[in-house]
Design brief:
CATH topology: Alpha-Beta Plaits
Oligomer: single chain
CATH architecture: 2-Layer Sandwich
CATH class: Alpha Beta
Length: 90
Amino acid sequence: MIRLSGQLICATAEEMAIVLVHLPDHLRLTRAEPGCLSFDVTRTADPMVWQVEECFASRAAFDAHQARSRASVWSVQTGHMRRSYRLTES
C-alpha cells in the first residue's frame, strides 16, 4: 500500500482559482483509477493551502496514477505550484 500525505500550496489568488476550476475533474478521474483506495484534496484554514491525502493499493497503481496525472490538464495547469508531500509504503 502506498500513502501520500502533504500539501499543495498556492502562491496567488490566481493559482487558487486554477485549483478550484480543475480539482473536481482531477478528483473524479483519480478516484476512478484501478487501485485508488482513497484520494482527498481539501482546503485547510488557509485558503491558499490544500491538504492532500492519497492511498493506493500498490506501487503499480500509484505509478499508473502518477503517469496519468503527468499527462493531464491538472498537471498542465497546476504543475508549477509548490507541493510538500511525504510518501510511505507498507
